[in-house]
Structures are given as structure tokens and as C-alpha cells.
Amino acid sequence: MSEGTIRVLLADDQNLVRASFAMLVSSARDMEVVGEAATGREAVELARTARADLVVMDLRMPDLDGIEATRLIAADEDLAGVRVLVLTTYDTDEHVVEALRAGASGFLVKDVRPAELLDAIRTVAAGDALLSPGPTARLIARLLRGPTVRQTAEAGPECLSDREKEVLTLVARGLNNREIADTLGLSPLTAKTHVSRIMGKLGARDRAQLVIVAYESGLVTPGAV
User: For the HTH luxR-type domain, which residue ranges apply (predicted)?
Assistant: First the structure.
């Protein structure tokens, strides 16, 4: 394993799915599979022992589901650098927001193309959230209007400057730093600095939580996506 290799833990209760993902991940020069878990509890234990950088987490697993496993990983101070990329199918969309609230940094649909999965792993491992605009953002908005909404970050956008609110709105729409910079006439470095400051002010773990805060607070509404 070379320096900079992404250490990936695969968590899925289906052997064939795990084997397929393992073969795909192992084919990438910048990745290594360091463990496979068939239950959520195994995923939590292996995250602690295998020194994984990222967990590809199925939501539906026996013993402990992917949401609770994600919550335990995100709450463990010893695993502060471990990112979680959750997998879902369209019939489990109602759980996606709960997974993000629990600490996941993004999600994918299980029929994703191989190249997209590898790109997603790189994106999340680098500390960015995988939240694409369009249907994904509308889904999050719809679910956050339900009766169980609760704040994920420590503060709301009222503590932000007008410029920071503009940046947060664009983050919630799925734009990356370069796209935010182009939209607002900023340099990419300035856009990145704004995003970092916003996360600091809100006490947010990552961009995924920023999206949730933007919708929960009403800063972004479904019609604005």
C-alpha cells in the first residue's frame, strides 16, 4: 500500500454485493479494501480495528442497521477521521436524511455505475460531501419538512454574514467550491475559506450537515432547487 491510498471498509449483508464492490475498489490504484462486514455491528468493530478511511455502508443490515452503525462511528472520537458513504435503493429514501443526520457524508443509489462509485469514494474521503443537485436535493428538502425535523449542527444560519448565507445556499444546491466561486465571482480558495468558516460557525461536521441546516432553517426551500 502506498502513501495516500484510501483504505476502504465495505459493509453489506449480501456476499455477492460485497464481492463485486471489493473487486471494483481493489482495481483502483489509489484504494485498498481493508475489511468486509456483513452486519452493522461488524462494520463498527472493523472501523475501529482496520484503520479504515472510509466505510461504504449499506442501510439495511442485520444486527445493527446502517444508520445506527453510522451514528456510532461518527460519535466515536477515535474514529473522527473516518467517513461514511451510505448506499440506498429508491424504496429506502426515507432513511437517507437520518443517515446524514447520523454523520454520513453522502449517499449513492446501489445501481450506480462503477466509475461513479470510485469517484464518490475519492470525493468523500477527501472531506467533501456527495450531495448532487436536482432530485437528491429535492428529496432532502421534502423529507426535512416532516414532523421529526431536528437540528444537526450546533447553530443556525442566523450567525452567518450575508455572504456566508449566499455560500451556504449554493452548497445546499449541490455546488462544489469551484462552482460557488464562479457563481459569486470569487476565487476557488476564497470559496473554500467561506465554506470552512461556515462549518466552524455552525459546528457542522461536513458539507452534508450544511445542506441539512440550510433546509431545516428555511434558508433554502424546495422550490429554490
Answer: 153-218
